[in-house]
Amino acid sequence: MKGMMRKRVSFFTKGGAWAEYALADRSETMEINAEDMQQAACFCVNPLTALLLLTSFQGSPFLINAGTSALARILIQQAAIDHIKAVAIVRRAEAQTEIQAIGAQVLVQGSEQYFAELQALKKEGKIKYAVDLVGGKATADLFNTLAPGGVVNIVGNMSLRPVSGIDDRAMRYENKQLVGFYLYHAWSALSLTLQSQHIHSLLTKYRSSLSVSIAGHHSLEAFDTAIAASKTHAGKQVLTLF
Question: At 89, which helix (H) or strand (E)?
């Protein structure tokens, strides 16, 4: 690979990389330095998920809950690059300024004005897309706010609760939809040409959005602690194998 010999890289490979050797296309390879290693470990899933979701929104504004999560932050930053309005729902009032700073309008769940703000967005009728990372009743907040023809992409379920509070009449009379999103299926459905185009976009246009906040660092001996921490949704956990 011309120009990349003996350099540290992050890359995409369809055959996996848990091996002594792996093959990767030069166009799908990004040079990194030692300080980037932890970011490279988080590179594939969230940035690609955010980009595919953003592409499906076709330039339209969108809602997202769990607004302080790693995926939400990346999606908001990518949207800002494309000048697309993002409305993020957060649980902590102190997070409002931080998420606004990366480009989103912020609603604080549980605040006095929360439901009034959702109603104002619904009345405005301009938001047709949403990303649900929470599940449970939080899904209904997104669904009920969307304009007719709106789509809620269910990407995660941090609450570990089934979706509830959805009025099925909105599906029948307003053509609203709940759609499951799973990166493996969405990515596999793309042609190799589109896959390469998306990866090129991440490595160039959206590269500034790829920084992920790391919440914890763990050695291999602390594997159980790392897994337990990841299940609390407290943030990205880095497990160092050697």
Answer: strand 86-90
The fold for domain 45-185 equals Rossmann fold (3.40.50)
Count the residues in the chain: 242
Task: Give me the residue spans of the domains in the chain.
Answer: 45-185, 212-242
Average model confidence (pLDDT) across the chain:
88
**pLDDT score of 14 more than 70:** no
Q: Is 32 exposed, middle or buried (0-12, 13-18, 19+ CB in 10 A)?
A: middle
In angstroms, rounded to a whole number, what is the distance separating the alpha carbons of residues 6 and 64? Answer: 41
Single pTM value for the model: 0.82
Contacts of 174 (CB under 8 A, 6+ apart): 148, 149, 150
Cα–Cα dist 128/151, whole Å: 6
* Measured distance CA(49)–CA(241) in Å, rounded: 26
Q: Centre a 10 Å sphere on the Cβ of residue 223 and count the other Cβ atoms it contains.
A: 12
Sole residue written with tokens 């976009």: 201
- Our measurement of the distance from residue 166's CA atom to the centroid of its chain's CA atoms, rounded to an integer in Å, reads 23
Place of tokens 């970011």: 39
Contact 54, 82 (CB under 8 A): yes
* Per-residue buried b or exposed e for 58-73, using 16+ beta carbons within 10 Å of the residue's own CB: eeebbbbbbbbbbbbb
Q: Answer for the pair 19, 37: CB distance below 8 angstroms, yes or no.
A: no
